[in-house]
Every structure is written in structure tokens, then in C-alpha cells.
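Researcher: Re-running this chain for the archive, since the previous output was lost when a drive failed. Same request as before.
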Amino acid sequence: MSIGTISTAVQNGRILFSDGAWGTLLQQKGLQPGECPELWCVDHPHAVQSIAQSYRDAGSDMVETDSFGGSSFKLQHYGLADRCSEINIAAAENSKVATGDNGWVIASIGPTGKMLAMGDVTEEELYESFREQAVALEQGGADAVCIETMSDIEEAVQAIQATKEHTKLEIICTFTFERTKQGDYKTMMGVDPTTMTEEIVAAGADIIGTNCGNGIARMIEIVQEMRSAHANIPILVHANAGLPQTIDGVDVFPETPADMAAQVQALIDAGANIIGGCCGTTPAHIQAMKEAAFTTRN
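Model: Regenerated C-alpha cells:
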């Protein structure tokens, strides 16, 4: 029996929980510097499946896929562009093992690294790359795509349109914002949360949001602006475990599971419907945040 769409679950009043960081967990399992993380979906499927399962065990209603850099443009750096479909199919299959029919796979699609404004790529080339990736992710069993860590409206629109026109996947799109010296928030391309909300909803996204770049405290402010721009669209937040601190040359994310859990209700009050983590977060962070949310609501 189908559990329906994520959007429907949100409309029915549910607060949902996503997963957390993947890169650090892959490193703990042996991913080496310079290796292609996405190739692990094919070469080390059980390791990838165990990460998805660890988030499900922590209470995640949905898990992402090891496909953030799975576009043909990103895979080209490793000489793997011709294996794009194979890798993305495997990425979705691995996460589907963990969710089964009782959770959602929200397949990760990250930026291509190509800049339209610089003439690195055409809109048609971006569209085709996103089409290939999205079609493969759907074939592997994904329920939705999470077009994430975006900064450029035009690139995000190509990803949304390619997915919408060639798959039946639910579409999530999140941008990464930084706080300016003036105290507002913009992407590296100068896009603010209000503009992002208006443009991405108009492009056809079912769910919008923000990920990376900020801990929950700043995400609250970003969500408030998004919610002011649109009263009804479901909003997803994948916050970092605080702002990174460099200790002995290593970036460390300082917020503990308890630290993040203490801020969850304020994030929900701001308008967030789906909560997960990004850099520095672990299954323990997800479990603590979910427990805090339901303790408060009950």
C-alpha cells in the first residue's frame, strides 16, 4: 500500500524528519580522499545501504541517496560520465532497501559546478544532464528528488523542468544562503529567500527549502522569510550542526544532538514542515531532534 506523497503528508499536518550528513559517514566506512563517493553505490552497495538504514533506525521518514555529485558533469571529473545512469540507478536502489514501502527516498541532485553566467554551459546542456540523472533515479526507485545546495535560479529551474517533464517524481528544491554584512541572507549568486521562493514555486517545485551553510538558529530566520513569501508550500530544512570551527586545521561542527534538538520547536514555529541535517549531523542528531519535536507536540 502506498504511503502517498510527502506533500500530502505535510498537508495532513505531519512534521516529517529527513536524514543527516552522508559524506562523513562514507569516510568512516573507508572512502578515501580523491575517490568518487557516488561510485560506492556500485562498488560498495552494502556500506551505502547501511548509512541509509542508520538514518531509518534513528527515525528518518525519508532518506537521501549517495548521488549528490551524480550528474554527468560531476562524474566527468572521475572519467565516469558514461556510467551516470548506472550509478544513479544504484544510488536509488540502495536507499530503497532501507525505506521499503514505508518511507520515502528523496534522491539527491546537486549543482553541476558549471556556471551559466560564465558561459561554461548552455541551458540545454544543463537540462539534458539533469534529465539523465533524474530518469535514472526514478528507475532505481526514488520517490522524489531533492535538488539541493543550489545558488543560481536558472540552474535550479533547469533541474526542476527536466525532472518534471521526464519523471513522475515529487520535486524538492533547496538553496544555500549566507548571512551578509547587512544581516540578510543571499546565495553566492545574490538570490534572497523571497526571490528563491517565488521563482522556484513558479517553476513547479512541490517542496522548497534550505540546506547547508547555517545552523538551525540562522535557518529559523531564513524559513520565516520563505514562509512570509508563501503561506502554504511545504518547507524542508537541512541545517548544519552549527557553524564550523577550525580546530587543528580541521573543520568541526560544534552542535551536539541536544543542542540541535533544543532549537527544533522554534524551527517548526517559523514554518518548517520537514527537518533533517546537513554537514556535521549524524543519526544521533536526527533521533534527538525527532524526539524533541514529538515530546513538545505531545
